[in-house]
């Protein structure tokens, strides 16, 4: 058997994941994700030499140190994103049943 053919054979414990429908709505992002999207460029400008892992640790540290007043807009964004997802999911499920 050719070497490449062995890679194509599924082992006993291997499961095949079904393909995801591309029309499925994108899942909502949490408050921390919105915070990171907003602050990542600022952190890159302040510390251009940070690695991706160090940047993630620094973002997490900053998020933990923020007050609820600073976090509130990001929680509001997350709530709006969740509402959007629920609307789109309902429309998607409706389109499947018709």
TrEMBL record:
<keyword id="KW-0238">DNA-binding</keyword>
<dbReference type="Pfam" id="PF00505">
    <property type="entry name" value="HMG_box"/>
</dbReference>
<dbReference type="InterPro" id="IPR009071">
    <property type="entry name" value="HMG_box_dom"/>
</dbReference>
<protein>
    <recommendedName>
        <fullName>HMG box domain-containing protein</fullName>
    </recommendedName>
</protein>
<dbReference type="GO" id="GO:0005634">
    <property type="term" value="C:nucleus"/>
</dbReference>
<feature type="DNA-binding region" description="HMG box">
    <location>
        <begin position="25"/>
        <end position="93"/>
    </location>
</feature>
<dbReference type="InterPro" id="IPR036910">
    <property type="entry name" value="HMG_box_dom_sf"/>
</dbReference>
<feature type="domain" description="HMG box">
    <location>
        <begin position="25"/>
        <end position="93"/>
    </location>
</feature>
<feature type="region of interest" description="Disordered">
    <location>
        <begin position="1"/>
        <end position="31"/>
    </location>
</feature>
<keyword id="KW-0539">Nucleus</keyword>
<dbReference type="GO" id="GO:0003677">
    <property type="term" value="F:DNA binding"/>
</dbReference>
<dbReference type="InterPro" id="IPR050342">
    <property type="entry name" value="HMGB"/>
</dbReference>
